[in-house]
């Protein structure tokens, strides 16, 4: 098992659960979070006044409040094997490979019955990105606020994920559509409407991220 694979297996679990309060691996500067590697900074999308909290590991940062915001940003540095996979497969096939073997596999390990509702490659975003929508039974990050559904029915959370490569790091931005489980049967959005809401939120989140330019090669 490569070092990258081990880091992925350990850190992607944060895409499905919030870590307990702890000292940050990264740091907060004003209203922004800066990753431990310094590869990116992001405007914090939650407010302390609304119960907003920031937790992280060396690879994943999670933002959540007490109402309806759950966002995680994972950034994994590609090792030699992953760079080779990327260069030989091409962006689209590489992102599909990465999603299937790491992200989806981790969700399935943590939650039974996970399904891909839809997925598509978006060539115009981040020089090529993969947009996926997952249905995750029992996977809501707001379990204490889910309305009683009766019987043994397990609420099915919906998660939008955006994957792309930047400066030899694989990024996974993930957002839960909290209203889907919080409003229960009263939530009347169609699948297409839900997809569009998540897509817009992912794009808005992407606009809050600033990436560090790679160091120029020495001559």
In short:
The protein has five helices and eleven strands; from the N terminus they run αββββββααββββααβ.
Name of the CATH architecture: 3-Layer(aba) Sandwich
The tally of domains stands at 1
Rg to the nearest angstrom? 17 Å
Remind me, CATH topology? Protein Transport Mog1p, Chain A
The counted number of beta strands is 11
Class by SSE composition: alpha+beta
Low-confidence stretches: 16-21
What is the overall shape?
Answer: globular
Oligomeric assembly: single chain
Order of helices and strands: HEEEEEEHHEEEEHHE
- Output the CATH homologous superfamily: Mog1/PsbP, alpha/beta/alpha sandwich
Tell me the strand order in the biggest sheet. Answer: 4-5-6-10-9-8-7
CA distance, first residue to last residue? 34 Å
CATH class: Alpha Beta
Per DSSP, the total helix count is: 5
Tell me the β content: 25-35%
For the biggest sheet, the summary is: 7 strands, antiparallel
Structure description:
- The longest helix is centred in the middle third of the chain and has 20 residues, at 91-110.
- The protein has 5 helices and 11 strands, in the order αββββββααββββααβ.
- The strands form 2 sheets. A 7-stranded antiparallel sheet has the order 4-5-6-10-9-8-7, sandwiched between helices. Strands 1-2-3-11 form a 4-stranded antiparallel sheet.
- Helix 2 (80-89) packs across helix 3 (91-110).
- It has one domain: Protein Transport Mog1p, Chain A, CATH 3.40.1000.10.
- The chain has helices at residues 3-11, 80-89, 91-110, 178-182, 191-207, and strands at 27-29, 32-34, 40-43, 53-56, 60-64, 70-77, 115-122, 129-137, 156-166, 169-176, 209-211.
- With 219 residues, it is an alpha+beta fold.
């Amino acid at each position: 098992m490569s070092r990258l694979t081990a880091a992925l297996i350990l850190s992607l679990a944060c895409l499905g659960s919030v870590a307990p309060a702890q000292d940050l691996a990264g740091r907060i500067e004003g209203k922004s979070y800066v990753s431990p590697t310094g590869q990116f900074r992001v405007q914090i999308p939650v407010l302390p006044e609304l119960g907003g909290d920031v937790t992280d590991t060396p690879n994943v940062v999670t933002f959540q409040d007490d109402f309806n915001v759950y966002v995680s940003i994972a950034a994994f540095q590609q090792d030699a094997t992953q760079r080779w996979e990327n260069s030989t497969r091409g962006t689209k096939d590489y992102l599909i490979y990465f999603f299937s073997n790491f992200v989806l596999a981790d969700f399935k390990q943590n939650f039974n019955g996970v399904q891909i509702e839809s997925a598509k490659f978006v060539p115009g975003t981040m020089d090529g990105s993969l947009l996926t929508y997952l249905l995750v039974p029992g996977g809501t990050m707001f379990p204490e606020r889910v309305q009683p559904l009766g019987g043994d029915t397990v609420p099915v959370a919906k998660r939008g994920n955006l994957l792309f490569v930047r400066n030899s790091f694989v990024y996974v931005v993930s957002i839960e559509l909290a209203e889907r489980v919080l409003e229960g049967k009263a939530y009347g959005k169609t699948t297409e409407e839900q997809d569009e809401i998540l897509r817009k939120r992912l794009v808005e989140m992407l606009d809050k991220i600033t990436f560090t330019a790679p160091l120029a090669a020495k001559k």
